[in-house]
Amino acid sequence: MASPLFEEFTVKNMTTRNRIWNPPMCQYSVEKQDGIPTSYHEHHYSALARGGAGAVIVEMTNVLPEGRISPFCSGLWSDEHTKAHARLVQAIHDGGAKAGVQIAHAGRKASTGGELHSEKPNVSLSEEEGGWETFGPSAVAYPGLKKPTALTLERIDEIVEAFGAAAARAVEAGYDFLEIHGAHGYLLMQFLSPLSNKRDDEYGGSLENRARMIRRVAVEMRKNMPADMPLLARLSATEFVEGGLTVEEIAQVAAWLKEDGVDMADISTSGNYPAEIKVYAGYQTPMAAQVKREADIPVAAVGMINSPRLAEYIVGSGQADVVLVGREALRNASTPLEWARELKQEVDYSPKQYRRAWNTRR
Fold first, then answer.
1. Which residues touch 297 (CB under 8 Å, ≥6 apart)?
2. Are 46 and 89 in contact (CB under 8 A)?
3. Is the dihedral of CA 263, 267, 271, 273 positive or negative?
């Protein structure tokens, strides 16, 4: 019996071979600190694609140097980055998957050490340590990090334009789809949340005003993309903190973004403030289902989707259109092929050199 997990999925002009995608996962591995992906990134994304993913979304890629989480993060702020990203696209395509990239700015959570390079990765770097000035919607610090500088209207315009320019470079690099990062406490979510956005101008106050920044970004990116190319938005459905964003508000934001040219919502949670979160298998999926229902938009579910039966149920029950498998794929890049085998699905996209392993039971 055919599994819905291994059915094709189409959004705009793009069809993926199955409903198992890899989400963006920061690698903190740009050793020269210039934002240019390296051979490590090519091997990493090649392995995920060859492991059977329908689509691979390249890690959070920043529109400006000061938008990086750490000095070791990827970027698309200059034409020098485009060729390196084209190599990532080629590596993913060679593995049979569609290639996407997440476009972002870390805002007040920028200028930290990075997980691989510091004993205290979530502490702000000083200038002597290679750090830089950070920016946010308001001068409200993320707990444990330095206070950001509140963005001026002129600087907001520059950042919106930088998102558009990064989108144009991503299109030139050959990506099949793009994703706006509006989640996990980075700049666009900082504007959305009343906890981090204390502005009293057109970017603050009401939800409509707080959504103005991400909506402008969506319009600017869409302007620099082919009309039939999919645009996704990653959103945190809740902050798990009193007074923070709610699922209902994020469903409204998703509906507005749909009007602005976004084709699909990628629903995660939290990241704007430290919070105690009770996690369990598929814990974020009900929120993805609610956004799908209320905003009438295709969604991707993510968060401890760690078994083929759970993933199959999520897609088969219509709670989400695709599942994003992250840490499970880091443990085993061939997770989609493993799941196909467990669900007794015959797939023909394992590397031909490896098929003796996938097509037998020994």
1. 254, 255, 258, 262, 263, 264, 265, 291
2. no
3. positive
Catalytic-labelled residue, pool 45, 142, 175, 186: 186
- 150-159 contacts, C-beta under 8 A, 24 or more apart: 150/199, 153/201, 156/203, 156/213, 159/63, 159/64, 159/67, 159/105, 159/187
- Amino acid symbol at 344: K
pLDDT in tens, 115-145: 888 777 889 999 999 999 999 999 999 999 9
How far is residue 217 from each of residues 187, 202, 238, 250, 352, measured CA to CA in Å? 11, 15, 21, 16, 42
High-pLDDT (> 70) share of the chain, %: 99
Domain annotation for the chain: domains and CATH numbers: 4-358 (3.20.20.70)
How far, in Å, CA of 85 to CA of 79, rounded? Answer: 10
The per-residue DSSP string of 127-150 comes to: GGGT----EESSS-PPTTSPPPEE
- The DSSP secondary structure of 298-362, one letter per residue, reads -EEEESS--SHHHHHHHHHTTS-SEEE--HHHHH-TTHHHHHHHHTT---S-S-GGGHHHHTS--
The pLDDT of residue 105: 99
The DSSP element (H or E) to which 154 belongs, if any, is helix 153-173
Tell me the mean pLDDT in the region 180-196. 98
DSSP state of 22: E
User: In the 3-class helix/strand/coil scheme, how is 104-125 assigned residue by residue?
Assistant: ECCHHHCCECCCCCCCCCCCEC
What is the rounded CA–CA span in Å between residue 66 and residue 45? 25
Beta-bridge partner residues of 235: 182, 267
Return the structure tokens found at 111: 């200028």
- What is d(CA 59, CA 100) in angstroms, rounded to the nearest whole number? 9
**How remote is the C-alpha of 301 from its chain's centroid?**
12
Cβ atoms 87, 98 nearer than 8 A: no
Is 313 assigned a catalytic role? no
Q: One-letter amino acid identity for 59?
A: E
* Per-residue confidence band for 357, with pLDDT thresholds at 50, 70 and 90: confident
How far CA 79 is from CA of 71, 86, 104, 144, 317, in Å, comes to: 19, 11, 17, 34, 43
Tell me the pTM. 0.97
